[in-house]
Fold this sequence. Notes:
The structure is a homodimer of 584-residue chains. By secondary structure, chain A is mainly α.
Amino acid sequence: MQRYFPILDWGRTYRRATLGNDLLAALIVTIMLIPQSLAYALLAGLPAQVGLYASIAPLLLYTVFGTARALAVGPVAVASLMTAAAVAPLAAEGSAAYLGAAVALAFLSGLLLLAMGLLRLGFMANFISHPVISGFITASGLLIAAGQIPQLAGLSVRGETLPDLVIAITEKLPQASLITLLIGLPVLAFLFWTRSRLKGTLMRLGQSAKLAGVMTRAAPVVAVAATTLASWGFGLSGRVPVVGEIPGGLPVPVLPPFDLALWKQILVPAALISLVGYVETISVAQTLAAKRRQRIDPDQELVALGVANIGSAVSGGFPVTGGFARSVVNFDAGAETPAAGAFTAIGMALATLFLTPLLFHLPKATLAATIIVAVLSLVDFGALRRTLAYSRSDFAAMLATILVTLVAGVEAGISAGVALSIGLHLWRSSRPHVAVVGQVPGTEHFRNVARHNVVTAPGILSIRIDESLYFPNARFLEDRLLEALAEQPGLRHVVLICAAVNVIDSSALETLEDMNARLKDGGVSLHLSEVKGPVMDKLARSPFLHELTGQVFLTQYDAMIALAPEVTQTCHDAARCETARAAR
Amino acid sequence: MQRYFPILDWGRTYRRATLGNDLLAALIVTIMLIPQSLAYALLAGLPAQVGLYASIAPLLLYTVFGTARALAVGPVAVASLMTAAAVAPLAAEGSAAYLGAAVALAFLSGLLLLAMGLLRLGFMANFISHPVISGFITASGLLIAAGQIPQLAGLSVRGETLPDLVIAITEKLPQASLITLLIGLPVLAFLFWTRSRLKGTLMRLGQSAKLAGVMTRAAPVVAVAATTLASWGFGLSGRVPVVGEIPGGLPVPVLPPFDLALWKQILVPAALISLVGYVETISVAQTLAAKRRQRIDPDQELVALGVANIGSAVSGGFPVTGGFARSVVNFDAGAETPAAGAFTAIGMALATLFLTPLLFHLPKATLAATIIVAVLSLVDFGALRRTLAYSRSDFAAMLATILVTLVAGVEAGISAGVALSIGLHLWRSSRPHVAVVGQVPGTEHFRNVARHNVVTAPGILSIRIDESLYFPNARFLEDRLLEALAEQPGLRHVVLICAAVNVIDSSALETLEDMNARLKDGGVSLHLSEVKGPVMDKLARSPFLHELTGQVFLTQYDAMIALAPEVTQTCHDAARCETARAAR
């Protein structure tokens, strides 16, 4: 029971001090979330109030089902972009069908997440590698920023790829509104300045770090209030795009459209949004939990996110996930339990009830500026350089993810990244590193003859294969062994060192059986050494060990003692070994 | 030049003795190929002569480009079934569009194979594991046999899946022709008997093994001749389906239809036929080459198969590949060079020129019987049992391939098999085997504490992870280390034994950096031991080694000597070790 309702766990020990901390954190997150929820709804092509709706029920539900103490769920930039990409081909923006599809997307994502959680499939998120996630987030941030920049000039531009956006912007450029630009650009500059400088300035002026942080986070609210006042005071609403009429009142429960054809069309996007959202959620949740030595349950997080998305759909919202920046703010502000999320939901409900009339005159350019500043913090080109320095294949996966996302859209980008990283892994393991080894003088240790000063015995080939033996490399092993045989005519024994062999699958077993028979024909015995327990257990269930012409040794040292005792024992005494080598 | 034209290599040393052997093998293969080529063309839904055409140009071209000495290319059962499955949805059987699509399929397959060969992508075939191939061949054999059985009763049944076939057969059953059955069943019984018994009987009667083999292979020709004579003699051609008019003369070179929409539709089937055909070809070619200690060039085989398929298309044929049974016959009959293939092509050309009028009265039921007997030898249910005994995940991949092929068709089957075997591999490597190890008394060797009688030192956790560290298992390692830490409060050192770690990718590197920092916070040092050269080279390019709180040791023994010298040295002397343990 407690596993599926973690609230029963932390709720039991809930105290007044915790309440105070949670309330303060909720206040700060609410202030941050009001402009964000409106902005991300517009980014997804939806009416502004949908963002508010998606910030109430999901937060309440996550409080009941979530295991991460400081995670803040709600609308986020990347999921909003993916929602727009998924729904735009299906219906005209602004139509009831568009909203219906977005709601159905949240519902289906929720069902998928819930099912994955109940089936304990949390491990699937691991198949998206860090370089692919990093590249995807960077490219998404660029796409979002590129789509919002023209909004600073009052232009509404849609496009799922960078080329689309560039063409759309070029076409609309003549319609740019100077007066909108006079609002948008200063807001953008103000937000960049507050983000990079305000906290330091306030602290130099003697404010505490905490208060300075809160004031910095409140900067978007200041921008919203100031530009709304300006727009109202100067009567700009006819000349500058504004948010306009937002229906007041709390969301009314609705059911998503049950249209099988629609669900089929959104199945793949829903799966991708779920997976990407889950990866983002679990990353931030684990990072924050680790800071306080807490643990989260990855499978229960799937359940919690699933229920939150279903809740979002039923209350007329769109896909939600755990936001990175917002969760960090929640954590820094002192949130101790998921109750902070419930308090934020109450704050958002109050905003929905009482603030919406005040937002009529809010310029859309202000919201665009808040989005641009938020997403550009996600863009991390330095990761490309760091990854290239470490691994070319990881770099290739990251670069491909970025380029495909920019040129062909978010769904193609994440799919290509995952496929490429898996493909590169398979390709790499299909051509494993193979080392011929010899004994390190004075030890029982064996190392690569090409890298270390080691001793080998004549007529014996000790070969270490640095990969599990399985279908992608089964034939490779055969080729390498035959090559080695061709080079050493006087060979009598081949010892295959299996210290790095974690699995031998059926394909590789067939290859080993073939090799054993072929070596036998050539008068060469095949031995194995350092075979691991689980691998040995499996081999014992096949006829291979009976057919093996040689032996299976516990260690490579045992093998060499059995096959070439003089060389090996001499070499074990380093001094004698050196003398013996000098004498040869 | 010799790389792309292997004929320049073996042709240079071609002698008269070789010529004799190649001619005899060609004669035997031609006798076998005449009924097969007609039968497989009908199986693919094509006119009989298309099978003859596909047995001329491809064989000549393979002689020029192939590296396998005894491989016999031409129409084969599985590729014919896949052709029918690919083309049937696009055009009505018997129409010019159907033939055009089959020709285009051969052309596109040829281009794909050629491109893969020139790009040296032969390794891609390794991604189809042996269990998947075996399951696919078994299921294809069953599908083909199921489709041919009703033809014994004069019923023409088409269906891409087992359920389709069962429904179609049930519907047509009332139209069964008794007289056709009176031809089909005896032929079937005769062919089964010759395949299983004739060779032994002949050898008991004093014939040489070689001659008995040849006579056995000629049994289908005997059946063809006898039933054709019977059908002609009794004037059955109105009541029994016969092959009928076959246009005489050699094929006229044509170009395949260049219709972009068509090519798009057949792209995936062409890729699958290419891959499956290549895998079958390379398997038989390597098996036969190994028997004579010859080597083949897998990438050049792609080129050769590609050119052969383009040749087939241009001469009005359909996809060809290296046939398993036919190549074994060619090899057994003494074929020494690819020239045997050219001689077979000449034999088939002569048959096309002079034999076609004689085949008018050949009952189709006879051809169906030859197909059934041929494909049932491909069905190997024993492989399921053998694979289950060895590996459950390989068994799962094999069973899934069989079931999906039978229920959803050949393309779905092979795709599902490949996806599942890759998925299972990733899943398995996402949950690697992890062992806590201790020293084997009297040695420098370290083994799993759960399996061996070993010695450990207090405050030191030596943990061996039996898998490369990469994205699918990066988080798993973190979980296991944190678990181990929670269980051992007095811990001071963690040694990660990397003997089985063949790669550390960027995702795992991030995890290691996190772990290093977290262990540091807890006052625990992280050490590595037995890191392989290539892994160490990469780590040296990252900041990780500078941040590492512990050391990197060449061997686990070195690590333990440095961290717990008394325990380790005592243990190295087995007798003293036992005393020390008894004293504790």
